[in-house]
Amino acid sequence: MDLRIVLGFALMLVSPAWGQPAASAGPDFQARMSAASHAYEELDYERALEQLDAARAVARDDRERGRVATYRGLVLADLGRRQEALAAFKEGLSLLPDASLPVKVSPKVSRDFEEVRRSVQRDLARNPRPPPDAPRAMTDAPPEPPPPPAFVPSAAQAEVRPERSLPVLPLALLGGGVVLGGVGGIFGLQSRSNVNAARDDAFYSDRTEHLDSARGQALAANVLLGAAVTAAAGAAVTWLLTDNPPSPRTEVSP
After folding, report:
1. pTM over 0.70
2. To which H or E segment does residue 252 belong?
């Protein structure tokens, strides 16, 4: 056998391509994007969205994910799903601020895309994103310290001081006396008015009627005024005799 044939066969056996099974090729991001672009050009929008989803699944970084989201917004805009398209544009421009539309579009879609770009730029200016390689310790805010525990005074620190509560019965008697005195005063004025009217009456019957009314009103006035005086006296006595228990008021000693 020819020596060259033998050497060639031996090299094939020890070669990595022959000595072990070939590794399966991973998904190709660019191939998925090309398939989505071809489906879009053929107006097969649903197929284009499927390819974009597949491309996003194999995207390796924010730049590739931004390209997928931007293209997805373009497809959704052509489908008339404007709100979803705006959301996709915002996602794409947030990941890839310098992104541009891959194909020529209508003025309306181009205007929506640029408006979203300006909105994203304003958001990024207010809240700049940290660089992807920034250490986590520098990007994460330090945890806030826990709030101090609420101070609860102990029994030894609490001091109860007597505080006089407002007595109810004396005030009620005093208020009743004031009301009775006011009503008795009204009846007294009415009695005096009837006496004056009786003096001016020319007929005996009219004088008698006014005098009877005056006597009744005078009696009522005297009774009410007496009751008012009694109520006021009772208020004074109960105020002096009431022994109010101290109401607790806790004060914390320093």
Report:
1. no
2. strand 250-252
